[in-house]
Write the structure tokens for this entry.
Amino acid sequence: MKISQSLLLPFVSCVLLSASFTQASTMTPGKLAMNGELIEAACSINPNSRDIGIEFGDISAHSLNMNDEGILTHPFFVQLMGCSIVIKGNAENQYPFANVTFIGDTSASDPTALLTNGDADGVGIRLRDQYGEILTLGKPSPGYELSDEDNILKFTASLIPVKQHIKTGEFYATARFFIDYN
């Protein structure tokens, strides 16, 4: 039996095509989900201010003094950008102030101090606003007055003793912050 070349070409094409469909049907399916939230905010947080790190370095335990936070205090900033204190939507809203709320675990010995973790014991971290007032974790700061465009919200973090006896070692602490505009 002689097979015509004109019949062979369509037959080979069908075999190759069905093989590629068979291969495609063995692929693992996946899913891509995307979401977000449009919010009415007076400002955007500068990406460099979303994850802030403060390095206290090596500190002598003798440096901790119940009355002097100065040498163990580090400034930090939350940079806001593209601020517009008047936002027009369904109604015109004005947001001339920003309140920042820091959230984290508090020290059992001092509710104004952020709990530290690690090998060190008896120390905490106290946060203060731009005027040096102690910030209470979980409560909004006094209002920072905003201007149009970019703003810098200034804070300090101080390592403080929260117990009479301090154990040396490494420490770390984490706080989250939220900004409310009003």
Notes: The two ends are 90 Å apart (CA to CA). The domain at 44-181 is CATH 2.60.40.1090 (Immunoglobulin-like).
